[in-house]
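Worked Example 4.2. Consider the chain below.
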Amino acid sequence: MPTMADVARSAGVSVATVSHVLNGTRPVLPHTRQAVLDAIDELGYTPNTLARSLVTSRTRSIGLAVSAISNPYFTEILQGVEASALEEGYSLLIADPHDDPEHERKVVQLLHERRVDGMIVAPSADPRGLLAYLGRHCVPTVFLDRVVDGGARFDQVCAESTEPMAQLVTHLSGLGHRRIGLVAGLPGLSTTGERITGYRHGLAASGLPYDERLVVPGNSASAGAEQATAALLSLATPPTALITANNAMTIGALRALRERGLSVPDDIALCCFDDFAWADLFSPRLTAIAQPSREIGAQAVRVLLDRLAAPDGPARTVRLPCAFVHRTSCGCPERPTASAGREQLDRPEQPRKGTVS
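Applying the procedure from the previous section yields the following C-alpha cells:
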C-alpha cells in the first residue's frame, strides 16, 4: 500500500507539502498541488482519515440533521449539501430529528460525539434544548431553512417566505377571489409564521380583510392538510381559492378536494408554496412558489466552511430569492412555454445569490 512518503517522492516534494495539500493547512502553489494530486491518483494512495484527524483535530465531516428526509424539498436540499461538501472534500453524517425537540437534541449530540467539524441543522419548532447544547459545546452550526429566535449567535440560511406568499395572495385576488384560504404549516416554525405574515400582507395589499377562520394549520404534513382543507370547505362561506404552505400539504389538500368531488380550478383555485418535480404533471398544472432548495443546501455548506475558517466572525443570515412558477391551477390559461411562467422574486436591492444580514 503506497504511503505519503511514496507520494512525496513521486511528486518531487516534501512529505510536509503532501500533508498541506491533503489537510489544507497551508497554501500550496497550484502546480505543486496538482503534482501531488497526480501522484496520489497514479499511486492509488488513500489517506488515513483517522490519523489525519488526530493531527489536525478535524475529521473533514459535517453533521446534517433535517426532518422528513423523504420530503422532496429536503431531499433536494440534501443533494445540494452533499454535492457542495464532496466538492470541498467533506463527508456527511445524516440524522432525522423528526421535528421532535427531544429527539433533535439527542441526534445532534450523537453527531457531535462522532467528532464532526460542524453541523447543518433544520431546527424544530421548539429548539431551546438544541440551542442550549450547541451553545454549551461551542459547536460550529448553520441553521437551515428555518430561522431561530435567540439564534443570533449562529449562521442561518433560508429562502424568502413573506414576499413570495404575498404574491400568491395578490395573484389570486387579481383573478377576482375574495375569500382565499391558507393551509398553514406547523405552528412554531419560522417558515409558518413568515408565510402567514406574507398571507396577511397580500390581503392588505389587495384591500381584503383578514379572517382568521380562513387560516387553518395543516402541521406541514399531508394528513394534517387533508383535515385542514376539509375544515375550510365546511365553512358556511368556504374559500374560492386555496394556498398550501408546503408541498406535502399540497398533496393532502388535493386529496380532500378530490374526496369532495371538487375540480381545480373550475370549483376552487389552488396555489402552493414549494414547487416539486411532478407539479408540472398534474392536471391542471400547479401554480407554485419554487424555493432554490439545492442552492440553500450548497450555500449552507459554504457558510459553515467560512465559519470553520473564521470561528470568531459575526453570525450571518443568508436569504435566497424564490421564483413564482405560473401554471394553470390558479385559473389562468395555459402559457405557451413552461419557462415563460417562471418569475424571479428577488427584490431590487438583493443580489441573486442571497442577502446577508
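The longest strand covers residues 61-65. Confidence is low (pLDDT under 50) at residues 346-357. Compare this with Example 4.1 before moving on.
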